[in-house]
Amino acid sequence: LHRLIRRQRQMCIRDSYYERALRLDPGDEDISANLDTANQAIVDRIVPPEEFQFSRLLERAIFFVPSPALESTAMIAYYLAALLGVLLIIRKPADRARRMILRFLTVSLTLLSLSLMNAGLQWFERSNRVEAVIMAREASVLSAPEADSAKVFTLHEGTKVRLGQHSGEWMEIILVDGKVGWVRKADLETI
Fold first, then answer.
1. What is the pLDDT of residues 109-132, one digit of tens each?
2. Which terminus of the chain is more exposed, N or C, with fewer CB under 10 A?
3. Would you list the DSSP string of 26-45?
4. How far apart are CA 137 and CA 45, in angstroms?
5. Cβ pair 134, 162 in contact under 8 A
6. Three-state secondary-structure class, residue 57
7. What are phi and psi of 59, to 5 degrees?
8. CA gap 181, 29 in Å, rounded
9. CA angle 61, 65, 67 (to 5 degrees)
């Protein structure tokens, strides 16, 4: 029994590590496969409600280009815009060359703006979505941040939750299906 409990605990810890790794490299197929395997051991199956088509498309559009590619694109566009700007100021090109430089400058500034805007949206989305994994074998979710409040439901080890506000030793959790409750901080591991 102790081996089984220890093994489940290790699976839960691995699950939180896979979640963290997936945030660092969302396109890695090995991490996704390992996370799927770890998720098969989770007891609680929480079904999210049907998402609106628009919100799904918006999320795909925001995360279509990975962060490292956005950073590289923004750097290249910035250096190209700076180089073209210096050329315009120092060289004083003829009208035809000036128009061509201005077009390239406009394209590079637009690309720079779009890259920075998309990177900002990705950062905002990731920073506002703080998630955790239930680490306790069985965690009672309460209606308020007090030990004597009513038990709303129970979650088991490995269940992923979104974190809300905190009060002392209690954290508010939000499930993907919209249920809300309070759990002791000691029962959670932040991703």
1. 999 999 999 999 888 887 777 888
2. N
3. TT-HHHHHHHHHHHTT-S--
4. 15
5. no
6. helix
7. -65, -40
8. 33
9. 120
DSSP 134: E
The token pair at 60 is 């795909």
- The alpha carbon dihedral of 101, 104, 108, 113 has a sign of positive
pLDDT digits over 87-101, tens only? 888 888 788 888 999
Residue 133 phi/psi, 5-degree rounding, is -120, 135
Residue 15 contacts residue 159 (beta carbons within 8 Å): no
CA gap 132, 56 in Å, rounded: 22
Instruction: List pLDDT tens digits, range 130-163.
Output: 888 888 888 889 999 988 999 988 888 888 888 9
Per-residue pLDDT for 43 more than 70? no
- Percent of the chain residues topping a pLDDT of 90: 24
Place of tokens 């002791």: 184
Q: Let me know the angle formed at the C-alpha of 160 by 157 and 166, rounded to the nearest 5 degrees.
A: 100
- Smallest CA-to-CA distance from 23 within 133, 153, 126 is with 126
The rounded distance, in Å, linking the Cα atoms of 143 and 145 is 7
Q: How many CB atoms lie within 10 A of CB 120?
A: 11
Q: Determine if the pTM surpasses 0.85.
A: no
Q: Are 119 and 127 in contact (CB under 8 A)?
A: no
Query: To 10 degrees, the CA torsion angle through 123, 126, 127, 128?
Result: 120
